[in-house]
Amino acid sequence: MPQTYNYNFPHPAVTTDIVLFTVRDGALNLLLVRRARAPFAGAWALPGGFVRPQEDLDTCALRELREETGIRDVYLEQLYTFGDPDRDPRERVITVAYYALVASDGLELRASTDAEAAQWHAFDALPKLAFDHARIVRLAHERLAAKSRYSTLAFQFLPRDFTLNELQAVYETILQKPIDNRNFRKWIRDTGVVSDTGEVRRGMRHRPARLYRASHTDGVAILR
Amino acid sequence: MPQTYNYNFPHPAVTTDIVLFTVRDGALNLLLVRRARAPFAGAWALPGGFVRPQEDLDTCALRELREETGIRDVYLEQLYTFGDPDRDPRERVITVAYYALVASDGLELRASTDAEAAQWHAFDALPKLAFDHARIVRLAHERLAAKSRYSTLAFQFLPRDFTLNELQAVYETILQKPIDNRNFRKWIRDTGVVSDTGEVRRGMRHRPARLYRASHTDGVAILR
DNA sequence: CCAAAAGTGTTGTTTATACACCCATGT
DNA sequence: ACATGGGTGTATAAACAACACTTTTGG
Question: Which residue is nearest to nucleotide C15 (CA to C1')?
Answer without folding.
Answer: B187
